[in-house]
Design goal:
The protein is an alpha+beta fold. It has 15 helices and ten strands. The protein binds zinc ion.
Length: about 400
């Protein structure tokens, strides 16, 4: 959807879709198999290595053009163009590896960076878990150790990494910590494994400096592993490639419908379009406003948990619903997660004493959250008793 017009893709795979790389890879795999099988005998490659769209190919110098022309006529859709880059002064890059031909004819490997590479990595001051920052150091150091073949180049590369990361604010201790971890190597992982197995489950939570570290320690006591993900990134704030939809056209949402007369509001979730669900609520409401309860009937219905809470509210209290002020609180395609978010919003409203009509006590919404999450009681029963997760659950409300 762009500028109010809905476009349909006619050819190729959608950018950013999770199936696209798989499809592209399958297509290219088929294409390369055909290409190699039908290549002219004198142009058959000695070596053929491909990663997605990057190919490393060893063949005779005078056959390069023949092979390239051959490759270009394999794809019948003519949408894939092969280009080539011959070795330059005994050097050729492939992915992030620079292959260098030595004087004696053997090859050595170095790290390859494009001339436009800026050496910008996650800044140390960024609001990210420390593990993520150490991960940057570890990835670069580990890549250097795995790829670079000669000791001298390795030292040079390490110098480069240190200089680049120091520019991004990384302190000396981060290098030393990672170096120690890498020296321990696979042994450390082996020791860690049984520890992980003991964990009952794992949770992914938003990262908030200072709070997350405490939550991590608390959860560990209950043998729950936790991972943290940064919130409010610049990308989330700035990048909105698609047009905003009309509020009623949104589906898979948690929504809120407030009452005009009092400060209560209704919170619900739906997988369908908001306008469809809203219409149902409005029809119910119209029906309810025509009903009149006696005092005894009103009392009786207040004590039961009625499914259509809006209708109940109108019928018993004779209040008006503020349809135009209804809004979407969250979008979540995954149904269990949507239930959880619904429960969290109900709790949030309850805590503010705006009081949700359907579920009144915060603990009951937490119970609802647990009951809708089938694997929950088994893996977190220990925590439930301690009410620790309930506290956590409440602390998370702020970030939704
Ligand atoms: Zn009301």
């Amino acid at each position: 959807m762009f500028d109010g017009v809905l476009y349909r893709q006619k050819f190729g795979a959608a950018m950013g879709s999770p199936v696209s790389p798989i499809m592209a890879n399958l297509y290219l795999e088929d294409l390369e198999a055909k290409a190699i099988a039908t290549a002219p005998i004198e142009a058959k490659p000695k070596l053929w290595k491909r990663y997605v769209d990057d190919i490393l190919d060893v063949l005779k110098q005078d056959q390069v053009k023949t092979m390239n022309d051959h490759l270009n006529q394999i794809d019948k859709t003519e949408s894939i163009k092969f280009t080539y880059e011959p070795e330059d002064k005994g050097k050729i890059p492939f992915l992030d590896v620079l292959i260098i031909r030595k004087e004696d004819g053997s090859v050595k490997l170095c790290i390859y960076r494009k001339s436009t590479h800026t050496d910008q990595y996650l800044k140390f001051q960024s609001h990210h878990p420390i593990q993520h920052k150490l991960g940057v150091v570890r990835t670069l150091m580990d890549r250097c150790q795995r790829i670079v073949t000669e000791e001298e180049d390795r030292k040079e590369e390490e110098k480069h990494i240190r200089a680049a990361l120091k520019c991004c604010g990384y302190p000396e201790w981060s290098f030393n910590t990672v170096k120690k971890q890498l020296q321990k190597g696979p042994n450390k992982n082996k020791q860690e494994k049984p520890k992980e197995e003991k964990c009952k489950g794992s949770v992914l939570l938003p990262y908030v400096q200072g709070v997350s570290e405490c939550i991590h320690r608390i959860l560990l006591k209950f043998k729950i592993a936790s991972a943290f993900k940064p919130m409010n990134t610049l990308r989330q704030t700035l990048v909105h490639p698609k047009d905003k939809r009309e509020i009623g056209d949104n589906s898979e949402i948690v929504y809120q419908i407030p009452c005009k007369t009092c400060d209560k509001s209704y919170i619900g979730e739906t997988g369908r379009k908001f306008k469809v669900r809203m219409k149902e609520h409005q029809d119910e409401a119209n029906e309810a406003s025509t009903k009149h309860f006696t005092r005894a009937q009103r009392k009786a219905s207040e004590s039961t948990q009625n499914e259509s809470a809006i209708m109940e509210h109108i019928a018993t209290k004779n209040h008006t619903i503020s349809w135009e002020k209804s809004k979407i609180l969250a979008r979540e395609p995954h149904i269990t997660r949507r239930w959880i978010r619904e429960s969290i919003h109900i709790t949030l409203v309850t805590r503010k004493l705006l009081l949700c009509i359907r579920k009144s006590a915060s603990l009951s919404s937490f119970a609802l959250f647990c009951s809708k999450w089938p694997s929950f009681p088994a893996s977190y029963s220990g925590v439930l008793n301690e009410c620790t997760l309930f506290g956590l659950f409440q602390s998370l409300i702020r970030y939704l």
